[in-house]
């Protein structure tokens, strides 16, 4: 028999936005490394790299200590330098643009499409000029970008394609894994991503040269991680190494990837089926020929009488953790002086209306029903209260 859903806010549901899918496997794996005495980058890192490279379908994978480090090293490896322009969506986490700026590059922000959260291929062409060197694609919250059109534009204009695949491990486009399309791609293993190492990231590429450059840069610019004395410092680099403890956790997580994707997609399909019947909400479309990993689940308020933030406030007060959707980089304090007047209507639509609902692999259907029920209730309450009067 179906359990009754609590009607009042007297019993808070306490459903988090996300929760990593961890078990004893990760504990055992980390403990084994701790007991081995070799904690820094070693065999476990190499094993983790091999597993991910094989899965995504690229020749080289280089593990680093965050997705942000991966982006910075990837851009240095494709030789983005002072004065070079790089086109990217503003609808992303700041790390996407920060990495370009820290290389001396100049982001050029393009809008996302009307139906989703990835860069609009139609917005790319008009932004290209003689200083444009690269194109950063973000497979945002696991939705694959329209790679066919993007790759053909990049080829036409001689631009290096860099995939920010921080959120999209396991997402595919025309049967190919995201992270395998560009000259170089970057993953994140932050706990909000599909698999986690606590903090961590990876650079993926088919190019031996890019792979070697990234390996060198992550380890102080030393030519060979195992025998640094033999080559010395070839170029100024960083210490962006991942530890074997983290890699062991990553390997255990990787073993669950198939299951994680199955559970995420099942829950997302259920949200889609039920929420598509609510006229006050709008759901982004899945890009044609793509399979999202549903790293996050975003919906948008479609009824202008409903205040999105007040709706989130009501959900939160009832124990359902919700968050506003992605806020545009070009309006962040670090970017607003230079880019504040750029017109990006769809990016602003998403920033204004979108919000994230809880979704994590261990979420039960009962928990999901509580989220849906509370959402319907909160929409009704907000609609009645109308805008400013809507209680937070
Ligand atoms: C699109 C995107 N790129 C890059 C990053 C940075 O990854 P990390 O947090 O591992 O540095 C994130 C993290 O949220 C992200 O969402």
From TrEMBL:
Keyword Oxidoreductase: no
GO molecular function: pyridoxal phosphate binding; transaminase activity
Coiled-coil intervals: none
GO biological process: polysaccharide biosynthetic process
Catalytic residue positions: 193
Keyword list, A-Z: Aminotransferase, Pyridoxal phosphate, Transferase
Entry annotated with the keyword Transport: no
CDD domains: AHBA_syn
Modified residues (N6-(pyridoxal phosphate)lysine): 193
SUPFAM superfamilies in the record: PLP-dependent transferases (SSF53383)
InterPro entries: DegT/StrS_aminotransferase (IPR000653), PyrdxlP-dep_Trfase (IPR015424), PyrdxlP-dep_Trfase_major (IPR015421), PyrdxlP-dep_Trfase_small (IPR015422)
Family under the similarity heading: Belongs to the DegT/DnrJ/EryC1 family.
Protein name: DegT/DnrJ/EryC1/StrS family aminotransferase
